[in-house]
Protein 1
Amino acid sequence: MEYFFEIFFDGLTRGSIYALIALGYTMVYGIIQLINFAHGEIYMIGAFTALIVSGVLGALGLPGYAILLMTLPVAVIYASAYGYTIEKIAYKPLRNAPRLSPLISAIGMSIFLQNYVLLAQTPDFLPFPSLLPPLDVVDRFHGVLSSSEVIIVVTAALVMAGLTAFIKFTRMGKAMRATAQSPRMAMLVGINVDQVISLTFIIGSALAAVGGVLIASHVGQINFYIGFLAGIKAFTAAVLGGIGSIPGAMLGGLVLGWTESFATGYVSSDYEDVFAFALLVLILIFRPAGILGKPAIQKV
Amino acid sequence: MRKISSAFAVAAAVALMGTAAQAKDIILGVPGAQSGDLASYGLPTVNAAKLVAEQYNAKGGVLGMKVKVVPQDDQCKPELATNAAFKLVSENVTVALGHICSGATKAALPIYKESKIVLMSPSATNPELTLGGGYPNFFRTIARDDAQARLAASFAMDKLGAKTIAIIHDKGDYGKGFAEWAQKVVEESKKAKVVLFEGVTPGAIDYSAAVQKVKDSGADALIFGGYHPEASKIVMAMRKKDMKIPFVSDDGVKDDTFIKVAGEFAEGVYASGPKDISGNPLHKEAVEAHKKAFNAEPGAFFDNAYSAALALLNAIEKAKSTDYDKVVKALQTEYVETPVGKIRFDKQGDAEGVGFDVYQVVKGQFVKVQ
């Protein structure tokens, strides 16, 4: 039974990270029907920024949690600035173009950012300091749970709860929901759609950066390429949960994380991806819109 | 079209002129990765060949013939390797030093065999190249992949006394190959049991579940086949979960980046790597020559390549001929002093006296285990 819980928590940790990144995919898709393939790179840039900032702060001799508290906001702001700029440069000029054009633009952006970091930083793997402080309470259950896993899950839960509240209760959240339903109608009732789209990119990028910083300090290393696989998996999670649906992305992330962990734990890690994608195929056969997605209604 | 054919004509003419001029030379072909992302594996071999050729030429050449080095790029790609081989054969190479990657070597080998040209690789480690038995013209100055796995597995069983062993690999050719050989060695020895054999996806965000499974399997030791990025993630996850079992891995992990990334968690990790040759005077001489000629430290497989070039030219000298059969015989019978040690080749083409040692991370450095 202990083994079951260990695997369960591993899956939960992994799933929380997937969910954080998946939210960015799903929010952007919900509003402008674009799959932002550069999103995985934002996650990577968030982690890289954190590495640089924490390196500087660490040299000043600050304690771990202080570094984390100062690093996270910087990484979030920096990654958000990237998200905002990418939208302005690569997607906004193509907003009325055929849907394939921004998709190609997104792929181009993704490759550009990878290579930019490769050239500006390094192609090597870099050690990432473990910023997540050890918690005495958790460490008593050492082996079953690690404190960094607990911190990741709790932080992800708080961030997602905050996002849900923001979408549900604020004016801006309402504007986002309205734009998701129909950008043209939203514009007609006086919503600044450009602003809403920018905000969507900023929020999505911020979430990805949080995910990037958390996982990098959990596994202790990064390089320019970490965004690729994480991005693909998070995109899978978003589709699994129903792309465009915010609770769907959260659920999809967790389901994917657990599927992978349990496949590894009880079958074989050789088949981790097989199970993950078999699940995706099954869900799309029986619920084409994803677990929580609403079937697309032809707007007339 | 006309442009292309005239370009061909010019190229052919140049090639003909080239061969005519070199009729009295020993042509040492050096096929291998010389551009592209794996160039760093192949370029040191070209440098090594040039240095050895210079050394012989300064003494008046081999059997009175000058040694001429002809590099040929294959980018480690099998399809380019066959082109490179045809090119070298058409330029009448005497012997060839390469290819660098196992896949490229495998693709090009039949072409050299057909033309009766000895090919000696400084770096192709795929066991089938020699064990397959199909290529009497193939030699190498590096140990086979299974040599490494054999060493790692027997180290885990005999020196570490492991009775139950978990084996993890990265699903890649190199890592999985290593893991499968290790598994075979353990199973055949009957001294220990393989309790877990699994592959993990390189680049996955974490390996906690796989590590948890190793823990649950109750293994006394973990053998990992693959490269350092996955190895450091796995070691760090293990140590964070309070697993203290030994971690034994391969040459892909015996890399300073591994220590840099895994930091304190790297301590105590075992990895096999080529024998330490830093005490060999010929090695020092070769490195000095390289520094003098190219003003830089030599790169990957430099010593193996330098040794291979020495072995080839020595064999021609001892055979007193460039005749294929005589050269092969000399390679198998005559010992030669090289930077990787005193070597000759067995019937299959593997160098006797070349191999691996086990290293351990001690205070942030790989140190040879006695």
Note: Chain A has a mean pLDDT of 91.
Protein 2
Amino acid sequence: MVKNDRWSYALMFSPGIVIYFCFLLIPIFLLVYYSFYDWDGLSPSYSFAGLSNYVEAFHDKAFARALQVTLFITVVATLAVNILGIAFAVFLNQKGRMTNFYRSVFFFPLLLSTVSVGFIWKSILSYNGLFNNLLEQLGVERIEFFGNPDLAVWTITFLAIWQSTGFIIVIYLAGLQSIPGSLYEAVKMDGANRWQQFRHITFPMLAPAFTMSIIFMFTGSMREYDRVAILTSGGPAGATETIAYQVVKVGFSANRLSYSASLAVYMLIIVSLLSVSLTVYLRRREERLL
Amino acid sequence: MRRNFAPYARHLFLMPLSLLLLVPFYIAVVNAFKTRADILDNPFSLPVLNLTLDNFIRSAVTPSFNIFKAYGTSILITSVSVVLLVVLCSMMSFVFARVSNRFLSVCYLLLLSGLMIPPQVILIPLVKVLAKLGLMFTPQGLILYNIGFYVPFTVFIFVGFIRTLSRELDESAKIDGASQLTIFWKILFPLLRPATASAVIFLCLWIWNDFINPVIILGSTKSYTVTTGIYQAVGQYSTNWEDVFALVVLASAPIFLLYLFMQRQFIAGLTEGSLKG
């Protein structure tokens, strides 16, 4: 490498990596450091606490419940969105007059902030919201979409599905359009029916779009925060708290900074392990299928 | 018979879905122009008879919230963060794609692992870092955080794209004695347009719609973005739906208008770029 080039490269490389180190990597190291102490976040002195935060978090029932809620939302939303996404993309993938209209409509919910969309749904579904007013006028009892612990988790899951399905449909549409039509000609000659065509050609050939959609939904749902904050504030009685919500709640309102750091480290480990194994599995699947 | 019916059958599935996706927005928009009594009486009708702008006038500017100030802050934070991300990360990606040594491989691995970090995890220590630098409660602090957080994603998009471009392009320019920096900006960067478009659209949406980071980093008093501003404003009204609808419409209008004029670019940028990356 020419000496001149070295300077050029260093100049181009350093600003970005320095900001990344200062505002992402150093905070991660600090997080791990805090998690081994007993700092409340405010007092000037604190002492080494070993693994005690981690031991406490391990036995923390509220955290276990938050993890359960998070995994429930993640699994249900990821599966539902991908099944709906593939089904609707297949329907939409015929050239027709309305295709562009549908595509624009499906995309729209994802563009707006979860906060705006959350407030709209809150005004519709909450106890004195528009939908419940309508039920009362019809003589039906009001439904506690956010007040009943089990139903509240389902409602949040439904809204996560509602907001992402359109985007995933469009991802699968892009995937479908990259499948060469000649593949279908061959199996049609062998007399394959529609379901067989889907099973043996469409679904395997969608592997890259499948990987992307699963990872997108998985990572997004594991860090579910906004909807919980807007719709239920974690309630009733902590029933809708996700791990992301709990990390922020404990860290910023309960003045237990070190303890919340250990929760955050757990969250980081769980999310990373699951995302890495899921990605590796899906990439291998792609190689096998394509 | 069946063949004639088939093209319409799909509408039986797609129309209800479209309605399900659009109805909440319809409800928000029509009710933003109604009085409260009117909303309770007929929440689904168009506001033809009692059309009112009072909800907007009342909630757009209050002693504690000003939507125009919120637009200003959001535009400033989003545009500065996105421009800097594109400039810094496209250059970084050029180095990653063209030079290989151990230091860079380690850096690349560290960057990719950053893709998986949930933002809530680093907020607590980040606040301490920003406070130490005197950047807490400032837009600059939020911008620096945005850059740090989205470097992995942006580099990921650009590196994938640059690797598909031939090296002969930069080598022929090098014979003319140009430095790597000039070669990149004069020759390569214009060719990166599809990747740049994808990155810009994703980053704009994420940063504009971001909620928890501005809530914590900007705090609740001095400055607010559109998202955190309406969150605080609605918090005061809680169940005055007519004000909530007006605020949501005001908050969503910029993105809706942009989408109306640039649908094709939006959809292409969000699907094609990401699938290739």
Note: Chain A has a mean pLDDT of 89.
